[in-house]
Predict the structure.
Amino acid sequence: MKPIIITCAPTGGIHTPTMSEHLPITPAEIATAAIEAADAGASIVHLHARDPETGKPDPRSETFQQFLPVIKQATDVVINVSTGAGLGMSMEERLRAATDAAPEMASLNMGSMNFGIFPLLEKYDNWKFDWEPEFLGMTKDFIFPNTFETIEYALVNLGQKHSTKFEFECYDLGHLYNVKYFVDKGLIKPPFFIQFVLGILGGAGAELENLQHLNRMADKLFGPENYEWSVLGAGRHQMPMATQSALLGGNLRVGLEDSLYISAGELAVSNAQQVEKVRGIVEALGRTVASPDEARERLALKGGDRVNF
């Protein structure tokens, strides 16, 4: 089996400042979190930005540019700029930072879906900022839009124009068929990287049977030689699904974007703590961890010398 590519997503656009004091908010905190995760064994860091004053998801390119060069100068980790940004943003807003930065990788959600994080409202009473409960609550009547038109726009204007490759985020079986549509059109070329996202309300549940089925169908649709796959388990499913992926020969993702915890009821104090834990699991299973350059080679990335930061 090949070395495992560990992706770390340090902050995301889902969790809010009230939920954990360890969630990176400022550009300096995000840079530190990414560098520490890379030092702990992450090959790729998947990055969002936040307003440094309020912690709200922030699509502004100038905010990203406060931490992207810092990370690049400190480590050789592969930098992946999210196009998910924050729920409720337009595709133009979601793509702005990535098209300006022209990173080696960017994320791309492969289908519209109900994206429900409103149940988190029940867990907290005293909010640090007014935007937090409003942001969570609106997802009860919200569809996260990723249409064929907007996906194609990203593939052309970010992928083709900037030679950026994608982390294709697939939350359900139909999203794999959306990937296949664009493979058949010639807009996605191998080797490509599929992230199975399991455990989000509105998508497939974090069940081993779902992972195995998605993996089998991806093999059938694309051929196992044409793509790399990874697993993101949301919330309490993070470590169990990462372990299942390692056992099945896949790659994995951790980070405070996906889970704020290191074990049941215990908040993670850093992203590096989660990377260190999953690396220990991987190595206990007799597997090894991929370096950033190994990830670049397997994913046919353009290299960190061809980015705009």
Notes: Residues 188 and 229 are 15 Å apart (CA to CA).
